[in-house]
Design a protein that fits this description.
By secondary structure, the chain is mainly beta. It has one helix and 17 strands.
Length: about 190
């Protein structure tokens, strides 16, 4: 827990319930002011409740078996307005988990991978733009986008970059930003 007083950190403590693992992403849950999604490198992902200090491993063994999740290395995640989650994995592409509000849990999954059209299974970042399009920053495959059910690939090697590794993706008002291992690109995403 972190406490701030007069714009200064007054105390800090380790969050219990999340194992010692590399934390790749922390995202506020859209339906709660006190809950956060935590993506980890070796232990899947968690839901942390800051009101009571509890952490629940969402991607436990039962869920992984039920929803065919094989990879616990979650690089990033995005929550959609309806509660569905997209998980960027290191090796299994992107996994979309469909949330059932009545049951209060995830009930099915869809895997975007090289087996069904994605050009690279090593995903570093996910972006869902205002039009509902998905942008995937891949480690070795440039940028992949999923627009109206079809994949479009943007190779950085085609424009002169030696490495096709995108670590971060951000959509501005009229531009797409890509964080690379060796710089930053800004582009019109629709040209």
């Amino acid at each position: 827990q972190l406490k701030i007083k007069d714009n200064q950190i007054s105390s800090m403590s380790e969050v219990k319930g999340i194992p010692a693992s590399k934390i790749n992403r922390i995202v506020p849950r859209k339906s709660s002011k006190t809950e956060y999604w935590i993506a980890t490198e070796e232990a899947g992902f968690y839901l942390y409740n800051s009101a009571n200090g509890s952490a629940t491993q969402v991607s436990d063994q039962k869920m992984c078996l039920q929803l065919n999740i094989r990879n616990e290395n979650i690089q990033s995640l995005v929550e959609e307005d309806n509660g569905d989650l997209l998980l960027a994995t290191w090796g299994d592409g992107v996994i979309k988990l469909f949330y059932d509000k009545e049951q209060g849990n995830f009930v099915k999954s869809l895997n975007f991978s090289t087996a069904n059209g994605l050009n690279n299974n090593y995903i570093k970042d996910i972006l869902c733009d205002v039009e509902g399009n998905y942008w995937f920053g891949t480690y070795g495959g440039g940028i992949s986008s999923l627009i109206d059910g079809s994949f479009i690939f943007y190779s950085l090697e085609d424009i002169g970059f030696k490495q096709n590794k995108v670590l971060a993706v951000y959509a501005g008002r009229e531009e797409l930003w890509m964080g690379l291992e060796n710089g930053l690109l800004k582009s019109d995403p629709y040209c």
